[in-house]
Write a structure and sequence with these properties.
By secondary structure, this protein is of the alpha/beta class. Helices cover about 40% and strands about 20% of the residues. α7 links the parallel β8 and β9. α1 crosses α2, α2 crosses α3 and α5 runs antiparallel to α9. Belongs to the LysR transcriptional regulatory family. Pfam families: HTH_1 (PF00126), LysR_substrate (PF03466).
């Protein structure tokens, strides 16, 4: 019977998550040589190659892609067993930006709790700017937000592309200002959109401002055009930039900021970051086409 070594499986998952031996070693408080040895030991025990390594890239092999979820479950079970020995519950203040959060959030939180039931997760959903301010003031332990233009720190979780979306039946008369629906004025995506319109000389008028549900409803009803993440645009809308001559919107990045330092919390955060990367895979090609509707990520519980 093949038995698994926790440290070796942990090394494999860390390398897969960070796609880097160096960053995985830093995360585990080890050395690149040590985790390479652990990975080799695991591959020898399983009789398969789990990772493919080139000078520029580290990625899962076909066998590694099959093994990764079982490896995560194995580590989660190990953490639950250890957590059961302690009655101590730890608070984890997590902020997720409204323009980043999607229907997968419950799945991500459930995965985080399954990894460590001793974690008391407190979640705040707001704009990226408000969350970053709360993080800097020490009110939150970690935030997942759209990258701030003035900051380059944080761990990149993936790209975020934006477009102009409207109902297929949306009409705009010649010379009419673009009817725009967007979130509150402090929303960074709104600022990006209005700057792009002004820069292109496109007249616009804001007809809906408010919470995301109201904005989504206005756009879906054919009353306005909305700037959305291509990943999170309402499913009954289409990208209309070419149709109405609207300027392209610059892409951004989703980043994770964290102050967590203890080993258990960092492992939990790694689990969350890995799940977020998996669930937020977007098209590699950012160009917008009026003939194309961007794929929506449909998520199932892990």
């Amino acid at each position: 019977m093949t038995t698994l070594d926790v440290d070796a499986v942990q090394a494999f998952v860390a390398i897969a998550d960070f796609q880097s031996f160096t960053r995985a070693a830093e995360f585990l408080g080890s050395t690149q040589g040590a985790i390479s040895v652990k990975l080799k030991r695991l591959e020898d025990r399983l009789g398969v190659r789990l990772l493919e390594r080139t000078p520029r890239q580290v990625r899962l092999s076909a066998q590694g892609a099959v093994f990764i979820e079982g490896a995560r479950e194995f580590l989660a079970a190990h953490e639950r067993a250890l957590a059961g020995l302690s009655s101590t519950r730890r608070r984890f203040g997590l902020g997720i930006a409204a323009h980043v959060a999607g229907p997968e959030v419950p799945t991500l939180l459930a995965r985080l709790y399954a990894h460590d039931p001793g974690l008391c997760i407190e979640v705040r959903l707001e704009t990226s700017r408000n969350l970053l301010g709360a993080f800097d003031r020490g009110e939150l332990d970690a935030v997942i937000i759209r990258r701030d233009e003035d900051r380059r720190d944080g761990e990149t979780l993936g790209p975020e592309h934006f477009g102009w979306f409207a109902s297929p039946g949306f009409k705009r008369a010649p010379g009419e200002p673009l009817r725009l629906a967007a979130l509150a004025p402090l929303c960074g995506v709104r600022d990006i959109a209005t700057r792009a319109l002004d820069g292109a000389g496109v007249p616009w008028v804001e007809v809906f401002v408010g919470v995301s549900t109201a904005v989504n409803a206005a756009v879906s009803a054919g009353l306005a055009v909305g700037p959305f993440s291509c990943r999170l645009a309402p499913s009954d809308t289409v990208e209309v930039s070419k149709q109405f001559g609207l300027p392209p919107l610059p892409s951004s990045e989703i980043v994770l900021h964290s102050t967590l330092t203890d080993a258990r919390s960092r492992k939990a955060l790694q689990t969350l970051a890995a799940a977020f990367r998996e669930r937020h895979a977007v098209a590699n090609e950012p160009e917008i086409s009026a003939q194309k509707t961007w794929p929506k990520i449909e998520l199932a519980a892990s």
